[in-house]
Amino acid sequence: MEYLFSERALKDIKRLEPNVQKRLIKKLDYYVKQRDPVRFAAPLINSSLGQYRFRIGDYRVIFDLDQENLIILRIGHRRNIYN
Asked: What is the C-alpha to C-alpha distance for residues 47 and 70, in angstroms, rounded to an integer?
């Protein structure tokens, strides 16, 4: 399994500080290497944003699950991501 960024998610991650970017990428790499990465995720109630979210510190990674891929839709601080 691997992860792919939507254009919006790429814009989101580029706005973050480099140390935060590295931490998020490192954690995403860890998740996709697991047999069932969704067990680390929580389903979203409002599915208009996406199916699931990862909590990585104060940041949230919203994603959909495809056959073989995690499609990262949004990345942002917990305070702003659901607005």
From this structure: 15
